[in-house]
Each structure stands twice: as C-alpha cells, then as structure tokens.
C-alpha cells in the first residue's frame, strides 16, 4: 500500500494512506498524529473516455461527501498524445489549511497512481 507524507517547512502535516480494496481506490487522510480526518473513494474504473473521473472526499465516517478531486477531461488529442492532465479539487472553505494541503498531496498521489504513463505504455 502507498503512503504519502505531506510536510511544510520541515514539519509533518499528515499522511495520505492507501487502504486495501478490491474494487475501488480508497485512501485515508490522516493528520500529523495519524488520526483519520477524511477519506477518499474513487470510481470502479479510473479510465474515462470523454468525461471526468471523480474521487469523492468523504467525512472520516464515510457518511457525508465534503468535496471531490476530479481529473478533468481535456479533449481527445491531449488525452491520447500527451501526459498533461488537469485536476480540480473542491473542499469546504472553513477546512483547516493543513487538511487542504493534505488534499493537494492526495491529488498528486492519485495522479501518479492512475494517470501518469511510463515510457512503455
């Protein structure tokens, strides 16, 4: 399982930890103490033709959606012939700044895990 540590000025803000799941990508967003503050759940299929791919940002108990991380469709030519991607992140305005930074880190992790291509692909 993957684990991303997010730091600022040498101090740890928290972690984004991949959870084991068979069907959908799941992540736990943890504060610096390792306590779960948010969860992220992706779609069954992370490859989408002519549409956005949405990862839901949920409360720690998974009862409410509080935001989303979206890989935005940029058009056929850019999607097929380049490795450039566009992402959007939505979250509550009153969310702690450290948690916002953790969601930005989660966006990078999701991009590297599902949307970056190696030289052989």
TrEMBL record:
UniProt keyword list: Calcium, Lipoprotein, Palmitate
InterPro entries: Scramblase (IPR005552), Tubby-like_C (IPR025659)
Pfam families: Scramblase
Cofactor: Ca(2+)
Family: Belongs to the phospholipid scramblase family.
Job of this protein: May mediate accelerated ATP-independent bidirectional transbilayer migration of phospholipids upon binding calcium ions that results in a loss of phospholipid asymmetry in the plasma membrane.
UniProt protein name: Phospholipid scramblase
Organism annotation: Limulus polyphemus
High-level lineage: Eukaryota, Metazoa, Ecdysozoa, Arthropoda, Chelicerata
Gene responsible for this protein: LOC106478467
């Amino acid at each position: 399982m993957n684990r991303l540590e997010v730091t600022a000025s040498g101090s740890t803000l928290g972690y984004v930890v991949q959870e084991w799941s068979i069907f959908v990508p799941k992540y736990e967003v943890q504060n610096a103490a390792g306590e779960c503050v948010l969860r992220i759940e992706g779609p069954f299929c992370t490859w989408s033709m002519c549409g956005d791919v949405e990862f839901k940002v949920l409360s720690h108990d998974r009862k409410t959606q509080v935001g989303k991380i979206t890989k935005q469709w940029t058009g056929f030519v850019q999607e097929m012939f380049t490795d450039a991607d566009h992402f959007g992140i939505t979250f509550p305005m009153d969310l702690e700044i450290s948690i916002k930074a953790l969601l930005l880190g989660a966006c990078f992790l999701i991009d590297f895990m599902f949307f970056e291509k190696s030289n052989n692909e």
